[in-house]
Design a protein that fits this description.
single chain, 857 residues, Hormone Receptor, Insulin-like Growth Factor Receptor 1, Chain A domain 2, 24 nucleotide stem-loop, u2 snrnp hairpin iv. U2 a', Chain A, eight-stranded parallel β-sheet, 13 helices, disordered N terminus
């Protein structure tokens, strides 16, 4: 027994040493872009690609030798390669695509528009660790649907694949593996997946559900021959702590999820020490073994001759593009000056400004911002506290802000930036109010008066309302549902109505309540704020097309006539609201694996639109009658989803929980349907403001002077009064009459203004779902009489919302089952979404007998 243990230990140690040596002997290459035929030779010199491989617009060589490439750390792109029939001729040994950096930040494998491609042929591919797959517009390509992509993709809830516009599977031959009897233990796993007509799809061994010799605690992970579970960071089989394929990084043959000190990342896949890094002629820095220092770092040599990197933020920096920002990343003190003069109007450069300048606290020279229409505020310099002024513009100015047509604000709220030396020069900023410039006086260390030479009210703020004309606008969310919210503002005065055109509603998704009015704002509109402009004076407005169960930030501003003798503008504070939950969309792709003759492992993707917190999944399964499979599928498909008929009427009470598509779903925006709905509602419902039934506003007819006198004075007094007294009384009565006329006129204007601004809630209804009927299994008549909907009852059993797999047990061998899954959210009575179903078949009886012969059960 002791001898046996020694032999096992010796074997495991030899495996570990062999693994390390084999990895050291592999040829490592950087990114390879193939754009001409001669470039194919570069592939034959590599085993591991640290970067990506892109093969685009090129003719395949007449004679091509298969490569020995086993691993790609980023992505593989094959686009318009002429003459290529199978990737097996290029990458027969490719095992893993790690997806460290993705194409378009999304894709790890892209096969697109290859006219002669017949099959994929990636016969050794086991895992695409990160990123999606897109195989599209290859007209002759077969066997895309016979590959179990969900098995290859490591994270089934986040990674997806698209197979589109390739050769229809019905026009492709069936691979011979479907009816082939298993000859080995691997084939006995019942996997009719193939890469082409005769090549099966290999699978990672840690997903082998037939590894019954592993302890229960290992779950679906593999184990060593001694029964120890493999590490979670191991993608394949293992021996002790050695793994043939690591998920993230490898340290001395062992898998790990990250390179923690004193180790450094090397080639995006290994963790090595600092001495090993330097022995390769590289620099250990910031957890990475790199060839060169980053752009904003300077390479230096220590006293013992070792290379290292030090932060270098010295010089006069000019930022014009996103690329120019990288030289300033990580800078806390900029020893020099900063000029921002943005030339890219179409990019979301403001977001990059906030990211790069997150830590900048001090500029020793000057700050110059000019000709940058994208900038609305300097809030991206939120941590800046001083401008030294050691170097000045024209020997005088430390803060220079000129010709920024959309700038509305300078610093963030409550931010104080001290200008230690020099002065300010701020001109030609038409939306920057002069009052905000005057607030900078307290930041100047040199007590000087801000004169017209430094900043002028005539060259700043002339295109916006400033000063006393800016008022506070009170806005509140009056009502909301899952996809809409009604915003209400205060009534404006009659004087304000002379220049008021309407309102602008700003809103954006805000998971955290830390939004500022100027955060992320882009002068050319390329930011995350959505705007609704209403050219009417109604105090109510409904924001539509919102996402269910999502928190939003919003504020409102008035839209006024600027070129007018009476200027008024008003802003509301930023406030928040969360939309109501709604029934979720259907679950994503459902797939299964035959575990035993009586068990199926069911997997599914969560809904694309959860519309709330998924608290459970309802699973239901039943046997399909033993008919011809084609007929069964046909009938089953028809029963699952039938195309709804056109409605005979328009239901005015919209049920938001079952109201169809949400903004992210296809066919949501139907212009013709929206136009029809709007026209119909305008025809049926006539606004009270436009009818002739409005209350008329009348001015009481004034009495003449004689009538007034008769009411005030006795008859005798009137007859005996002198002409002078009559004249005095007439003057008083005329003054009183004029005052009453003025009051009546003002009252009439106020009533008209109120009627124009507030037409009532009826014009801005927020539809709410019908309540649940109190009567169980309510009849249609009961529903109509009580304006309610019945309680839904769901068949099957529930699985917690944080699980996306389940093992169905107690099934019968060689039987087809109809399995249905639906998602349910918290907070609703009828909480479950539509059903998604598949047909799943247990292992055949002949295969069960084969398992018994192998004594696997």
């Amino acid at each position: 027994m002791l001898l046996r243990l020694r032999l096992i230990c010796l074997y495991l140690f030899s495996m570990l040493v062999t693994q390390v040596r084999m990895d050291e002997q592999k040829l490592i290459c950087n990114t390879i872009d193939i754009k001409k035929t001669e470039d194919f030779e570069r592939l034959h010199k590599c085993n591991i690609i640290v970067g990506h491989i892109s093969i685009t617009n090129v003719q395949i060589p007449a004679v091509i030798t298969p490569t020995d490439i086993e691993e790609i750390t980023d992505y593989l792109l094959v686009y318009r390669v002429h003459g290529l029939e199978s990737l097996r001729s290029l990458f027969p040994n490719l095992v893993i695509i790690r997806g460290k950096d993705l194409l378009f930040d999304k894709y790890a494998l892209i096969i697109y528009e290859n006219l002669k491609l017949l099959n994929l042929g990636l016969v050794s591919l086991l895992r695409i660790q990160h990123g999606d797959v897109r195989i599209e517009s290859n007209p002759l390509l077969c066997y895309t649907h016979t590959v179990n992509w969900l098995h290859i993709l490591g994270n089934n809830t986040k990674q997806h694949y698209v197979l589109k516009n390739n050769k229809p599977p019905s026009f492709c031959a069936i691979c011979i593996l479907v009816n082939k009897k298993p000859e080995t233990e691997e084939e006995a796993e019942f996997q009719p997946n193939c890469w082409d007509f005769e090549v099966p799809q290999n699978k990672l061994r840690n997903i082998s559900y037939n590894s019954r010799e592993c302890p229960t605690k290992c779950g679906f992970d593999a184990c060593t021959i001694t029964g120890n579970c493999c590490s979670r960071d191991c993608l394949s089989d293992c021996s002790t702590n050695a793994c043939s394929l690591c998920a993230n990084f490898m340290i001395d043959g062992k898998c790990t999820d990250a390179c923690n000190p004193p180790y450094y990342q090397f080639n995006k896949r290994l963790c090595i020490g600092s001495d090993d890094c330097r022995s390769k002629g590289m620099i250990p820095f910031a957890g990475i073994c790199t060839k060169n220092c980053p752009k904003n770092y300077q390479e230096i040599k220590t006293s013992n001759g070792q290379r290292s990197c030090t932060l270098n933020c010295t010089g006069n920096y000019v930022v014009e593009t996103v690329e120019g920002l990288e030289t300033l990343r990580d800078c806390k003190t900029l020893h020099g000056s900063l000029t921002i003069q943005l030339s890219e109007t179409k990019s979301k450069i403001v977001n990059h400004l906030e990211e790069v300048f997150m830590n900048l606290k001090e500029i020793t020279g000057y700050l110059k911002v000019t000709h940058s229409p994208q900038i609305v505020s300097l809030s991206f310099l939120r941590n800046l506290h001083s401008i030294g002024g050691n170097v000045l513009i024209d020997n005088h100015y430390a803060l220079y802000i000129v010709n920024n047509i959309h700038m509305e604000n300078i610093w963030s709220h409550n931010q104080k930036v001290a200008i230690l030396k020099g002065f300010i020069y701020i001109h030609l900023n038409p939306r920057l109010c002069f009052e905000k410039i005057l607030q900078l006086k307290s930041s100047l260390k040199q007590e000087q008066k801000i004169t017209i030479q430094h900043s002028s009210p005539n060259s700043n703020g002339e295109r916006i309302v400033c000063g006393e004309g800016v008022q506070v606008l009170n806005a509140t969310v009056e009502d909301f549902n899952a996809t809409a919210a009604r915003i209400k503002v205060d009534i404006r005065s009659v004087e304000d109505m002379n220049v008021l055109l309407g309102y602008v509603h700003y809103y954006k998704e805000a998971p955290v309540r830390n939004v500022s009015m100027y955060d992320g704002r882009h002068g050319c509109g390329r930011d995350h704020w959505n705007t609704d402009v209403t050219i009417n004076r109604n105090i109510r407005h409904v924001i539509k097309n919102l996402k269910p169960y999502t928190q939003y930030a919003y504020f409102v501003k008035t839209l006024s006539i600027i070129e007018f003798h009476w200027q008024i503008e008003a802003y509301s504070k930023i406030q928040y609201f969360r939309t109501l939950p709604s029934t979720p969309g259907p679950v994503g792709v459902i797939f299964y694996h035959s575990l035993t003759t009586t068990e199926l492992v069911l997997h599914w993707w969560p809904p694309k639109n959860p519309n709330g917190v998924i608290n459970k999944y309802m699973i239901y399964y039943e046997k399909v009658k033993e008919k011809i499979l084609g007929e069964t599928v046909k009938n089953f498909t028809a029963s699952i989803k039938s195309k709804p008929k056109a409605p005979d009427c328009i239901c005015m009470n919209l049920d938001t929980e079952n109201s169809g598509a949400v903004p992210n779903e296809e066919n949501f925006y139907n212009k013709n349907e929206l136009t029809y709905d709007e026209a119909l509602s305008n025809f049926v419902y006539v606004s009270r403001a436009s009818t002739g039934t409005n209350k008329s506003f009348c001015i009481k007819k004034p009495k003449n002077t004689t009538e007034e006198l008769n009411e005030i004075l006795p008859v005798n007094a009137t007859q005996n009064s002198t002409s002078s007294k009559s004249a005095d009384i007439n003057d008083k009565m005329n003054a009183k009459l004029g005052t009453e006329r003025l009051l009546n006129y003002s009252r009439e204007l106020e009533l008209k203004s109120l009627a124009e601004q507030d037409t009532g809630i009826a014009d801005y209804l927020i539809m709410k779902p019908l309540p649940i009927c109190n009567l169980p299994f309510a009849t249609v008549q009961h529903q109509l009489e009580n304006s309610c909907k019945p309680q839904e009852y769901y068949e099957g059993f529930s699985v917690a919302g944080n699980y996306h797999s389940y093992i169905l047990t107690g099934l019968q061998p060689e039987v087809t089952y109809r399995v249905s899954v639906r998602a349910c959210v918290e907070g609703l009575r009828n909480a479950c979404g539509p059903t998604s179903s598949i047909l799943a078949e247990t292992v055949s009886k002949s295969l069960a007998n084969f398992f018994k012969q192998l004594k696997l059960y």
